[in-house]
């Protein structure tokens, strides 16, 4: 069974559904593409997509089985040191981190990064992605020094390839800000978040990622005791969520709760 145009079209439809936040609908379409005679390449694409759908729906155990099977097929098809295998390792690392196995997540992410370092030029943005993913797992494992080092490496690659005003740089700045907050370096954390917000406003405008950064900026300002400024940032975040139709999301709810705390803290003592 070859990957004909009809298969490719339905595969693209499933990807579109998933990218539009319709994971359950995408899951149904991916499942309809499963076939015992599907070539290994097609099977990998379907298993990976289906795993992402289940992951997005919080069905982590099912998703993990699909990711591991996809990785096994990739290793059989391309060998254990191919960039495609590195991508599968990163998917699995994110999932293992969510399931609470921080040590395995870091190990899987480090293996993915090693593969990519051996296969790609040192300034390839795929390395920046791998460094960012590994740093997220290190942050979750509370290894803030390692996470910071890898974030700075990723930031330098993205800045060299895409410029300072790029989404990758903004993500690194956001995460560096969070590390500063964990260390109690609140003033520096505020500066990182402020720049991340400025970049996302410029390149994305009204967008979920912009609202998310504004929420993080507000939380950082609150952590630094700047209650009035924090409330303004959180109000701006909520207005952005409202404009993009995401006022009922968990991130928006977090902003509302933080805003209430900031308003109370900003009130003069009676």
From TrEMBL:
Lineage of origin: Bacteria, Pseudomonadati, Thermodesulfobacteriota, Desulfovibrionia, Desulfovibrionales
Keyword Ribosomal protein: no
Family annotation (InterPro entries): TPR-like_helical_dom_sf, TPR_rpt
Gene3D superfamilies: Tetratricopeptide repeat domain
Species: Candidatus Bilophila faecipullorum
SMART domains: TPR
Keyword tags: Repeat, TPR repeat
Name assigned to this protein: Tetratricopeptide repeat protein
Stored Pfam families: TPR_10 (PF13374), TPR_12 (PF13424)
């Amino acid at each position: 069974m070859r990957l004909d145009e009809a298969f490719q079209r339905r595969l693209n439809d499933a990807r579109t559904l998933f990218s539009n936040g319709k994971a359950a609908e995408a899951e149904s379409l991916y499942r309809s593409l499963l076939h015992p005679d599907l070539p290994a390449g097609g099977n990998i694409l379907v298993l990976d997509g289906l795993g992402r759908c289940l992951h997005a729906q919080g069905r982590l155990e099912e998703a993990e089985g699909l990711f591991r099977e996809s990785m096994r097929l990739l290793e059989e098809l391309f060998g254990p040191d191919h960039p495609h295998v590195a991508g599968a390792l990163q998917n699995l690392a994110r999932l293992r981190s969510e399931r609470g196995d921080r040590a395995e997540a870091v190990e899987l992410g480090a293996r993915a990064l090693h593969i990519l370092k051996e296969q790609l030029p040192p300034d390839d943005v795929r390395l920046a992605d791998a460094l960012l993913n590994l740093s997220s797992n290190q942050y979750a494992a509370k290894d803030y020094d390692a996470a910071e080092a890898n974030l700075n490496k990723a930031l330098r690659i993205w800045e060299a390839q895409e410029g300072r005003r790029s989404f990758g740089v903004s993500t690194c700045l956001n995460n560096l800000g969070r590390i500063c907050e964990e260390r109690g370096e609140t003033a520096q954390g505020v500066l990182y978040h402020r720049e991340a917000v400025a970049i996302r406003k410029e390149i994305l405008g009204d967008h979920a990622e912009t609202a998310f950064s504004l929420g993080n900026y507000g939380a950082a300002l609150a952590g630094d005791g700047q209650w009035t400024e924090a409330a303004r940032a959180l109000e701006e975040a909520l207005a952005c969520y409202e404009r993009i139709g995401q006022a009922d999301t968990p991130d928006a709810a977090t902003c509302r709760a933080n805003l209430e705390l900031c308003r109370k803290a900003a009130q003069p003592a009676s």
